[in-house]
Amino acid sequence: MSDKPSVLFVCVHNAGRSQMAAAYLTHLAGDAVEVRSAGSEPAEAVNPAVVAAMAEDGIDISAEIPKVLTADAVRGSAVVITMGCGDTCPVFPGKRYLDWTLDDPAGRGVEAVRPIRDEIRERVAALAAELLGPAGSRGA
Questions:
Q1: What does the alpha-carbon distance between residue 15 and residue 67 come to, in Å, rounded to a whole number?
Q2: What 3-state class would DSSP assign to 93?
Q3: d(Cα 75, Cα 94) in Å, to the nearest integer?
Q4: Are residues 133 and 121 in contact, defined by beta-carbon separation less than 8 angstroms?
Q5: Are 79 and 4 in contact (CB under 8 A)?
Q6: Into which CATH architecture does domain 6-136 fall?
Q7: What pLDDT score was predicted for residue 87?
Q8: Distance (Å, whole) CA 75 – CA 128
Q9: Taking the complete model, does pTM exceed 0.70, yes or no?
Q10: Which stretches in the chain have pLDDT values below 50?
């Protein structure tokens, strides 16, 4: 087990919110944090409007593939952040669980995805500062 903080972002399809959050945390923290994302019912591909919105912010997630949520992914994470997946996320003692209420970008255009992206970026920046301290963040 690594000494690094580990975070798992979970949403239903792993095609929007959790992908954006994982990309931002990876961008901000580099390899100082183990970052995972998964979905309770993964989609075939990441939402194209999400890919476009992230590209506008200089982050390329076009090669990402939605992954299925597993008990091992939860077990291997110190912090589990859910985003609209309800009770499908397994709960293990000793894990920190946060539930972020965010609009679902599914079926929306890039204009509607931008405010969701921006809110995720703010929440992830606060999480990165908490996990690493202000000096630990690489900045955006």
A1: 9
A2: coil
A3: 9
A4: no
A5: no
A6: 3-Layer(aba) Sandwich (3.40)
A7: 64
A8: 20
A9: yes
A10: 137, 139-140
Contact status, residue 65 vs residue 36, Cβ threshold 8 Å: no
Torsions phi, psi for 82 (to 5 deg): -100, 150
Q: In sequence order, which ranges of 47-109 are alpha helices (DSSP H)?
A: 48-56, 71-75
Helices (H), 8-109: 17-29, 48-56, 71-75
- Under a CB-based contact definition with an 8 Å cutoff, are residues 125 and 24 in contact? yes
* Strands laid side by side in the 96-99 sheet: 34-39, 6-11, 79-83, 96-99
State whether the Cα torsion 89-93-94-96 is positive or negative: positive
H-only helix segments in the chain = 17-29, 48-56, 71-75, 110-132
Among 5, 48, 11, residue whose Cα is nearest residue 28: 5
Contacts of 45 (CB under 8 A, 6+ apart): 15, 65, 66
The pair of three-digit structure tokens given for residue 6, joined into one six-digit string: 């580990």
Question: What does the block give as tokens for 91?
Answer: 């709960």
Q: How far is CA 54 from the centre of its chain?
A: 13
